[in-house]
Each structure stands twice: as C-alpha cells, then as structure tokens.
Design goal:
With 443 residues, the protein is an alpha+beta fold. The protein has 14 helices and 25 strands. The strands form five sheets. It has a ten-stranded antiparallel sheet with strand order 3-2-4-5-6-1-7-12-14-13. Strands 19, 20, 21, 22, 23, 24 and 25 form a seven-stranded mixed sheet that branches. β2 and β3 form a beta hairpin. The N and C termini lie far apart (57 Å). The C terminus is likely disordered.
Length: 443
C-alpha cells in the first residue's frame, strides 16, 4: 500500500444560532492559520484566486446567510474545508503528519471545544485508514493499493450496477443512519444528540479501548488505541472492529443490500419513545456474539421521561430471541429479512444461506414453543422473485434437505430440514411489507 501518512479530521455541528455560527467560522480560520499558511482557495468547488485571509473571512460572513456555501483552502499538501448548510457547519481537515504532530495538542483541544459547543459528531483518524475502509471505487483504490490487494477485497454492485468494493465489511466504514454518522476509528466524539439512536451507556461501557472520557457532561470522547500511525497493526484493527461490534453499527445500517454476515454483539429495538437493547457477553463478562453468549444485559431507555432501566441475567436465549414475532393462533414464530440481492455478485446466494443457517441451526431452551412452526420471511424486490436461485442455494446448503417448492401469486415457500429441525422459508414481495407497515400506522 502507498501511504499518504496524513491525518484526517471531521466535525459536524448541530444547527447553530447566528452568534455561534460566526464563532465557528472565526475559530476555523484561526486553526488554519495556526497549522499552516494556505496559498489558494476554492469557493463551491471552483478555484478562485490566491489566498487572502480578509477576503476569505468576508466571503464566509456573506455566505452564511445562504442555504449552502462551501470553502476550501490549501497549501498544496494540507487542506481544510468549511461547509455551511442550513445553519449547520461541516468541517474537514487533511493535515500532513508533520503539521499534525507539531500542533497536536492545539488540534485536539480545538476538536474538544468545538464539540462541546453544540457539536453533533467528530472524529480524527489517519487518512490512510479512512481511504482503505471507505473508498469503494476500484479505479480510485489503484492510487494507493496494488491490483493484488484489490483483487482480494469483497465486492458488490452499486445502484448503477457497477462493481465496487463492499466497504460494509470493513471496521472503519462510515455509514449514515437517520442523519447520524456511524463509524469506528482512532478518536471519536459522540454528542448528547446520539442518545436518540445509541444511548450513552452503550458507548461508555465498550471494552478494550484506550480511553473513554466525558467532556462537559455532554460529549463522549473515545480513543481506541494510543498511536494513530499504528492503525494497521493487527491488534489495533481488532480493537476497531470490536468497537464497531459492541456499538452495533452494522445492526443499525448497511448499504450493500444484504448486510455483513456477522452475528450481533448487541441488538436494538425502537418504539415511539423507547429504545431497548440487549448485549451479549460470555462467562467473563466480555462482549461476544449472540450464539456464544451466556450473560445478557438488557436495557430500556425512555427518551421522554428520561427513565433508564438495566437488568443483567445469566442463562440461554429462548425462541423469541431468534423469532420475535409470535402468532399464537396459527402456532407460528417468525422473523423477516429485507434484502436487495440485485446488489450482490452472486444473486444473493451467500445472503440467503447465512440467514437460513442463522435461523435453522440455532439452539434455544424453550419448551413453550416446541409445537410452533419456525418461519423466516425474505422480503425482496419483484425482480428478485422472478429469478430466485433455488438450485444454486441447494448446492450451497447441501447438508440441508429442501422440501417441495410451493409458489402462488403472494409468495414462494419451501420447508427446510436438518438434524430434526425444520424452518419454513418464504420469499415475498417487499411491497407487501411496505403496505403492512402503512396499515399498521394508519388502521
């Protein structure tokens, strides 16, 4: 790999009042002047002229009154940008190792202070780590990776049916969920706003990190490991993945159409004003996967009443942990998965196989549901229903017996058997799920 050995910082603010917005602009200008001397600038992606501090300040003051304005300054090696969007500020700083090391304490203090003053999210990380984990375009990856390295990486299709790298599989991939940035990297800042999706205690309780600190009672600062330039050491990569697993990022959001094929360390359930979570631990109270867990931490957060409840138990999971929807009239227990197999290179075969095994091969101790039929429903686009790869799936799951394939205008159904266990699998049109959810909200 060809390394840049630069550091990359990102800060996103919440919507700001006029005075706070002006303060962020002023502080951004000061940080740039402290770190390096720009020689050129771009306004809304267009090169304007040589750098002029007073002109830059004036342009930003005028631009903040518009719906959106972006300005980038650079000296050819270092680069900083500020993007004002509807009273919120997005900042990015790409700095050489020499500049970052020389001003590290100032930069980190700047991030601390900016986040405390109505920041939403921020991180600082090695730029090489960011590139490795976030560049999907294969041609762009050739700028820093060899063809042999690229060949070994997981791939998928994007919405334009172009083959790209499946960055969902990487520990440091940035995904976005309901307007929030979710990632795992060297140094991360989570504001109180994140309580709406990931309660603070989940982040504060993560294990095997260098440090976790609470800034001004509002911002959680997590540092995964001590030396950022050692990001590609195996142990640091493992810490990065473990943080992602413990916070459940990949349980909340993925954009490859099928998921990451990893068992959860934590699961979430969201109600109108309540978040419920269950974390999985082993006998040493260390984070582990769902199937291996012997200890369970269940939490409930009432976002309106600010009520928090926690319970820790030892034992084993019951049937509802894998099939959360129970139909007592028809004696069925169900789970469902929404997939977009058209974004995969194998027509979704690996995804189908993973989720089928994850429901057919599980063990649970619950006699209450011994007479119930276990059902797994795949909700798919209509095009995928026309070309279901059943024969290829049989070859992949050669140790599982496939029963008679039943088709009608609502679904395709097949019953699978292995070692005395049965799973009824449905392939259904995702539009049906959309209609059901609309009816549930508007009876």
């Amino acid at each position: 790999m060809i390394k840049t050995e630069k550091m990359y910082g990102f800060i996103q603010s919440a919507p700001l009042e006029a005075a706070a917005l002006q303060q962020q602009i002023d502080h951004w200008l000061v940080l740039v002047r402290v770190c390096y001397q720009p020689t050129a600038f771009y306004m809304d992606q267009q090169l304007k002229r040589t750098y002029d501090y007073e002109l830059i300040k004036k342009l930003l003051q005028e631009g903040k009154d518009h719906a959106s304005v972006e300005l980038i300054v650079t000296d050819g090696e270092n680069e900083s940008s500020i993007h004002i969007v509807q009273d919120a500020v997005l900042q990015r700083h790409l700095l050489t190792k020499q500049v970052f090391d020389a001003h590290r304490s100032v930069i980190q203090d700047y991030f601390d202070t900016t986040m405390v003053n109505n920041g939403l999210f921020a991180y600082i990380r090695p730029y090489d780590e960011y590139l490795v984990h976030n560049v999907e375009n294969i041609e762009k990856r050739k700028n820093f990776q060899s063809l042999k390295e690229i060949e070994s990486l997981p791939k998928r299709k994007n919405i334009h049916q172009e083959i790209v790298i499946d960055c969902n599989q990487f520990a440091g991939y940035d995904v976005f969920y309901n307007g929030y940035t979710l990632t795992s990297c060297w140094r991360m800042y989570f504001s109180a706003y994140y309580e709406q999706i990931i309660p603070r205690v989940i982040i504060m309780d993560t294990q095997q990190v260098e440090s976790i600190n609470l800034l001004d009672q509002n911002v959680v600062l997590v540092e995964l490991y001590r030396h950022p330039d050692q990001w590609d050491h195996e142990v640091n990569l493992s810490y990065q993945q473990l943080f992602r697993d413990q916070t459940g990022i990949d349980q909340l959001a993925w954009d490859n159409g099928v998921g990451v094929f990893r068992e959860p360390f934590i699961e979430y359930a969201y109600g109108p004003q309540i978040i419920q979570t269950i974390q999985y631990q082993n006998d040493q109270m260390q984070p582990t996967t769902k199937r291996k867990a012997t200890h369970f931490v269940t939490r409930s957060f009432d976002l309106v009443q600010q009520n928090y409840q926690e319970r820790r138990v030892k034992g084993y999971l019951n049937a509802q942990a894998y099939f959360p929807w129970i139909d007592r009239e028809r004696l069925r227990m169900m789970d469902y998965i929404v997939l977009q197999p058209e974004l995969t290179l194998d027509n979704g075969i690996e995804a189908y196989a993973f989720y089928i095994r994850n429901h057919l091969e599980v063990a649970f101790t619950d006699d209450a549901f011994k007479d119930y039929t276990a059902c797994l429903q795949f909700y798919l686009p209509s095009e995928a229903l026309v070309s279901l790869p059943i024969e290829a799936l049989k070859d992949t799951l050669s140790d599982i017996h496939f029963g008679y394939l039943h088709r009608n205008n609502k679904y395709t159904r097949v019953t699978l058997k292995k070692n005395g266990k049965k799973l009824r699998v449905y392939f259904m049109n995702v539009q049906k799920l959309v209609e059901q959810q609309i009816l549930a909200k508007h009876p």
